[in-house]
């Protein structure tokens, strides 16, 4: 018995020693992970792909209030055609009817959307293209890649990473079946700084030898921008997508339209208003981006020299109307906004902008925000600006209009976006935002002669109240 136990113990010790001495299986290097995934996903011979489904797109940065997700647009049909060699993509969509009570901003995307990429196309415009499953594989194979193991949601992944052209990490998560479940990277956003961009893929199926997800969810700012259920995939479908490669966006030079003594509309769209107070300047709107807002500030100081900008009034928290506010913070200005926006603005204007530092990144000025409820008056004893919160707006819960009673000038955003020409025929259907603006003007008993729409018409004309009345079918 003792002999048997000794032999068994010796065997266990030998086995343990052998196991200890045996080298562990070598982890796959990044190129091997990519090669295995490319083979498993059928990417080796894939030049183009077309996929079709139904789902919902969301208007990024256009939430009804800071606690709301991006407002939706339903797609009865969504087809995306990708040519990886060009490179280019096209989306063809059939939109569902928009509910009358939809809240939030953002126009529905056009029925056809085409993007062609070239050497001068900014990375932020390309990123969605290379985040597609087979696009990530192609882009990763061109780069110096690394791999790490990571667990997420109870699953183990091989995470392949490389440095994107904007110097941010570009990560792809491959599961045990060599399918790409997730892609993530970061881009600069005027409002949210170093913004996480996410793509989640699931439900892979075989379509003509190519494995492709049947569920796609894209996110920016933690909320979805696309939620798509894929029903059909055509590998190497015809994809002759033509057009001019996208380049860096060009900002037209700012010009000024003098509306009254000391009152200047700074054009083109997105417009802003500069008002001369006794010891300082009041600006209405800091839109779009640091670059655009910086140009607006320079033009305002040219119109009204030797005075600081003390206040900038924010009409609402939509990103296209707030994206330049950090430039005004760097200038030392105080933001005036609806009271429900303060906590959100305090948070997001403190976010880092390391990928593309803006003026506030260097200035590091203290964020100063004053709030208002339904009304606030700015005056120096001579000049006056009355700020009102628009009632019953479906566009934004804190939408502010500004009225100069002495000059009879109204500044508004998205209540009325005038047509390109003043003599354009009245629209067949009345825009409810136009009606809401008229109702608020009447409720407040404002005597408006001139309107300054933030979405200013390209001809730079002086917009009159008569144009708004025509739009609601109450004028000639």
Structural class: alpha+beta
Main beta sheet strand tally, sense and closure: 11 strands, antiparallel
What is the number of helical segments per DSSP (H or I, 4+ residues)?
A: 11
Shape: elongated
Q: Would you identify the CATH architecture of the largest domain? A: 4-Layer Sandwich
The low-pLDDT segments are 1-26
**Integer count of domains:** 2
Q: Beta-sheet strand percentage?
A: 25-35%
Question: What is the CATH top level name of the largest domain?
Answer: Alpha Beta
Per CATH, the superfamily of the largest domain is Ribonuclease Z/Hydroxyacylglutathione hydrolase-like
| Helix content class | 10-25%
Give the integer mean of the pLDDT values. 93
| Lateral arrangement of strands in the main beta sheet | 4-3-2-1-13-12-9-8-7-6-5
Q: CATH topology of the largest domain, which one?
A: Metallo-beta-lactamase, Chain A
- How far apart lie the N and C ends? 112 Å
Rg value: 28 Å
Number of strands: 26
């Amino acid at each position: 018995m003792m002999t048997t136990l000794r032999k068994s113990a010796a065997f266990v010790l030998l086995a343990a020693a052998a196991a200890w001495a045996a080298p562990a299986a070598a982890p796959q290097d990044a190129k091997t992970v990519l090669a295995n995934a490319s083979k498993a996903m059928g990417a080796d011979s894939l030049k183009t792909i077309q996929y079709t489904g139904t789902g919902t797109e969301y208007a990024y940065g256009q939430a009804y209030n800071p606690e709301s997700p991006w407002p939706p647009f339903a797609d009865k049909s969504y087809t995306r055609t990708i040519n990886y060699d060009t490179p280019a993509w096209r989306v063809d969509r059939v939109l569902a009817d928009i509910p009358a009570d939809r809240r939030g901003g953002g126009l529905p995307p056009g029925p056809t959307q085409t993007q062609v990429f070239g050497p001068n196309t900014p990375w932020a415009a390309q990123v969605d293209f290379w985040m597609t499953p087979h696009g990530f594989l192609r882009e990763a194979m061109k780069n110096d890649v690394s791999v790490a193991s990571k667990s997420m949601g109870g699953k183990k992944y091989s995470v392949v990473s490389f440095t994107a052209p904007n110097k941010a990490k570009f990560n792809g998560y491959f599961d045990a079946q060599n399918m790409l479940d997730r892609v993530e990277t970061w881009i600069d956003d005027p409002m949210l700084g170093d913004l996480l961009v996410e793509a989640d893929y699931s439900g892979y199926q075989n379509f003509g030898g190519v494995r492709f997800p049947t569920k796609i969810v894209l996110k920016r700012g933690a909320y979805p921008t696309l939620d798509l259920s894929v029903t059909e995939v055509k590998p190497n479908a015809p994809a002759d997508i033509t057009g001019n490669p996208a380049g860096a966006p060009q900002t037209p030079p700012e010009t000024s339209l003098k509306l009254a003594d000391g009152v200047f509309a700074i054009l083109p769209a997105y417009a802003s208003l500069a008002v001369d107070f006794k010891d300082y300047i009041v600006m209405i709107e800091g839109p779009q981006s640091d670059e655009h807002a910086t140009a607006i500030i320079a033009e305002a100081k040219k119109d009204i020299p030797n005075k600081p900008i003390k206040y900038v009034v924010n009409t609402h928290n939509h990103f296209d109307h707030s994206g330049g506010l950090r430039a005004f913070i760097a200038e030392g200005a105080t933001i005036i906004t609806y009271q429900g926006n303060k906590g959100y603005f305090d948070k997001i204007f403190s976010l880092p902008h390391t990928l593309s530092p803006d003026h506030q990144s260097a200035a590091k000025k203290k964020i100063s925000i004053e709030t208002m409820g339904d009304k606030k008056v700015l005056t120096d004893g001579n000049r006056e600006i009355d700020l009102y919160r628009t009632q019953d707006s479906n566009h934004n819960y804190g939408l502010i209009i500004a009225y100069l009673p002495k000059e009879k000038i109204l500044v508004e955003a998205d209540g009325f976006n005038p047509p390109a020409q003043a003599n354009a025929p009245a629209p067949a259907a009345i825009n409810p935002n136009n009606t809401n603006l008229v109702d608020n003007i009447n409720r407040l008993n404002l005597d408006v002669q001139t309107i300054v729409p933030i979405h200013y018409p390209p001809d730079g004309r002086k917009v009159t109240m008569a144009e708004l009345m025509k739009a609601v079918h109450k004028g000639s």
